[in-house]
């Protein structure tokens, strides 16, 4: 940010040479491409029309009423929230501890440790889902809400780790040293000094972990049992059986939930920048 | 010593969780791929065979002879092809978009960044589902084209490889824009000014300064699109038809209808190897110093 402020007086923003012809048109089309499907889905979820036609036929909330009156769907929503809640709390706690360990002076296996923490991000979902399924079947973990929670926790760790680690990087090590000089125990120094300074990072990480758990389809699809599914898995099976307008309504709700959490994290981030 | 122990203690939960719930399962998957398939599904834990890998290329005909079967190879080829096309298309759309974003005033840049990030984090299932509404016959696109008088035939796009391509491009476009934007945004503006001062026109400045310096973002974005594109499951399942099956659905079938766990595990293992090869080629390029971060 400061680098930019320094260069502000030199860079002629309105100078013609800085505009690359055509990029603006492509960018506008790209943003339209990103948002048209989302807007279409939201609009159609309020349409009174029947499922066979994806077009507007009067405003109605009755597909939302359908969702709220569907016990299976409500159960799936509850499962999703329980799973995401657990994965967020467990994943962010584990990630915070790991970030505290890696933020200090570099140690011997640091790159290996960091690669291991980031591994869940690079393995294709489907491979991770299959491997976890085989493991649970072999070890004898019953497929259900517990197995989904365990699988999601692994994937919550890297999502939470990255923002926390970034926040710790900006922390002055002298602060923790001063606390130690004043005879604070490591725990006390964390609670009174480090935590108050890095909590925006932890909050951002927790939100990303929450969104990714709430959005996961593939891994949950493999490790969920017949008894308990999460909302995206439920929606996935509904969509494969055929489109019903209730899917529009529930999809809109799912999407708005992610957008709400994301906006919150964006505003939080801006406040603490 | 105490500090070392404390560090080990802080790292232990992360290492144990990832180790037990991811590394161990991946090892188990590799092991299962070498096992004999059970008569009613599942596996026989004590019998090893290379059948699962043989099945990838060969099948037994009615006489019990081994004959070459290229069906699975075709599916892998299609997956690699679709992932590559997706990478190229997202690059062609993503680069100009990132370039435009990076040269906006800072306040607007923050907002644009947020606008691009929202779809990135929005449920991937929901985003692909939305395309069903747009692309199906009688859907939004069909309706608009009919109203405009472009066509009065149903568009018949849904459940084709083309629809899968649209879904993949749509799903992964932000993965391309964001890394390119980051590399362009931190690019030292004075270098471009210097190019202009030295008489370069826009095209030269782009070709000789901007493009080379944004290569790390381009390569990063290409990896971020190609790797998940290869293992994509949602877009081909929802938008593609039976004729555009990709690796993900093939793997899933082995654990569903086909009940052939060793083959499914072998396919997953091959997919994992492809991904690791792509990633390590990327890492090796960085290490050689060909590209500086």
Overview of this protein structure:
The complex is a heterodimer of chains A (273) and B (293). Chain A starts with a helix and ends with a helix. In chain A, 42% of the residues are buried. The longest helix of chain A has 33 residues, at 71-103. With 273 residues, chain A is mainly α. Chain A has 12 helices and no strands. The radius of gyration of chain A is 23 Å and the shape is globular. Chain A has 2 domains: 13-60, no CATH class; 64-271, MetI-like fold (Orthogonal Bundle). Chain B has 293 residues and is mainly alpha-helical. Chain B has a domain at 71-255: MetI-like (MetI-like fold, Orthogonal Bundle), CATH 1.10.3720.10. Helices cover 72% and strands 5% of the residues of chain B. Chain B has 13 helices and 4 strands. Chain B has helices spanning 2-32, 51-57, 71-102, 106-121, 124-135, 140-148, 161-185, 189-197, 202-213, 215-230, 234-239, 247-255, 261-287; strands spanning 35-37, 43-48, 58-60, 66-68. Chain B has a two-stranded antiparallel sheet. A two-stranded antiparallel sheet of chain B has the order 3-4. In chain B, a hairpin with a 5-residue loop joins β3 and β4 (66-68). In chain B, α2 packs across α13 and α3 (71-102) runs parallel beside α7 (161-185). Chain B is globular and about 75 Å long. The mean pLDDT of chain B is 85. At the A-B interface, α2, α4, α5, α6 and α7 of A face α1, α3, α4, α5 and α7 of B.
Kindly summarize this structure in a few lines.
The complex is a heterodimer of chains A (273) and B (293). With 273 residues, chain A is mostly helical. Chain A has two domains: 13-60, no CATH class; 64-271, MetI-like (MetI-like fold, Orthogonal Bundle), CATH 1.10.3720.10.
